[in-house]
Amino acid sequence: MEIQAKVDANHPNGRLEAGPDHIYGKTLVQEERIQGREAELAAISAKAVFGSQDGREERTREIVVEQTGARRVEFLKRAGCVNPMVHPERADPREMLTPEQLGAVNKEAMRLGQKLGGWSTAAIGRHLAEAVVGGMDLTSAVVGTFEKLQTAPGVVVPIGKLESISRQEVSIEGHIVQLWEPSSPAIAQVGLIEDESGRTKFASWVKSNPKSVQEGEQVCILGAPKS
């Protein structure tokens, strides 16, 4: 070992003297290996101490929620540069309405809530108020809000509205009108699905491991690519 230490000390890459940033008699490779191991042991030790602390999961969850909220606020601030209506520091548009306007907006929001699944009356009322504050009359605001929320992302959209939706992923619901033999072994099923607004062709692919459907069956297709 003494001989090896002398060899290492006289190595061209060896350290000839001790110091705060290097180890005497060790090559750069040896130093990096030792420092890496020490850093790994320090991280394991810190993790063990932190993992034994009471309430760690709750604190972690609180931090994640706080950071997520902060990122959302920052995103809405940037979006507010384009659309002031979504700025997080903007007052609720319903506060800008007269009592008569607010009453009418709330009434229409309740009526639209019966037609739009997945939307609360409060959310619909806010959208209506934004349109009215923006200068639209209530009738136009109702029509525009209904069409916007009816085809919003994550909402089951009418099949008859598919061609007017610009995004490439949609969810639809209807009954299977017809099935026919697929033209490729990669296709599991192909046919027509219909609701009260229209009908469209659908295809399910073998690689997605889809559930089998039957003619006349009522089905909901979520997050399907549209083409």
Protein model, in words:
- The chain is of the alpha+beta class and 227 residues long.
- It folds into 3 domains: 2-51, no CATH class; 93-150; 159-225, Beta Barrel (OB fold (Dihydrolipoamide Acetyltransferase, E2P)).
- The chain is built from 6 helices and 4 strands.
- The chain has helices at 2-9, 28-51, 56-80, 99-113, 121-133, 138-150, and strands at 169-180, 187-195, 198-205, 218-225.
- A 4-stranded antiparallel beta sheet has the order 3-2-1-4, with no helix packed on it.
- Helix 4 (99-113) packs across helix 5 and helix 5 (121-133) crosses helix 6 (138-150).
- The longest helix is centred in the first third of the chain and has 25 residues, at 56-80.
- It is flat, with a radius of gyration of 32 Å.
Summarize the structure.
With 227 residues, the protein is an alpha+beta fold. It is built from six helices and four strands, in the order H-H-H-H-H-H-E-E-E-E.
Descriptive keywords:
3 domains; 4 strands; 4-stranded antiparallel β-sheet; single chain; 227 residues; OB fold (Dihydrolipoamide Acetyltransferase, E2P); alpha+beta; 6 helices
